[in-house]
Amino acid sequence: MFKFGTIGAFKQVRNNPRTKATSELKNGYVVLPDNATGLAPTAATPVQAKSTDVHVVYNIIDKPEIRNSADFKIEIGEHVRAFRLADLAGLPVELSYDAVKDDYAAIKVGDTLVPCDDTSDPTAKGKWKVSADADYKVSLKILEKTTFGDKGFYVEVLVK
Fold first, then answer.
1. Which stretches does DSSP call E strand in the chain?
2. The pTM is what?
3. What are the tens digits of pLDDT across the range 38-56?
4. Which residues have a Cβ under 8 Å from the Cβ of 115 and sit 6 or more positions away?
5. Taking a C-beta distance cutoff of 8 angstroms, is the pair 125, 118 a contact?
6. What angle do CA 61, 64, 70 make, to 5 degrees?
7. Distance between CA atoms of 54 and 41, rounded to whole angstroms?
8. 60-71 pLDDT, tens digit each
9. Cβ atoms of residues 137 and 157 within 8 Å
10. pLDDT digits 0-9 by tens, 67-91
11. CA–CA dist 149, 160 (Å, integer)
């Protein structure tokens, strides 16, 4: 799950609702929307994951059969509402643990989360991972561990 940390953030960030999922996604996952193809794939290569064009999935839960927001998924072919993270530079957001690859207990305050790519992390498509690699243009610095989505993080969006 994903949530803006401030009300003003929603008004400031650009979003792209015109592309469709190429794999099963959850809110909080990373995609790279492409208006030319109409698709929103996850980062296929480390170069894509390190770009400033990463977006985060944040669809409205519009399926009445969903009783728990943690169960919400965007299926292949469904429209993705993707928000451009670079527009949120310096602002806080909340992210639940289900969008992170690494073990929750091993993640510490001060760690940096970066997008996974399909080449290096084929079983974690669209998720975030802990990394100290300074080459990522967009990352999330963990400010606090929270109960958001049962286990979650309060993070600051960092953009280079």
1. 2-4, 15-21, 30-31, 39-40, 55-57, 79-84, 92-96, 112-115, 128-130, 138-146, 152-159
2. 0.91
3. 999 999 999 999 999 999 9
4. 30, 43, 49, 54, 128, 129, 136, 138
5. yes
6. 50
7. 11
8. 777 767 666 677
9. no
10. 666 777 889 999 999 999 999 999 9
11. 28
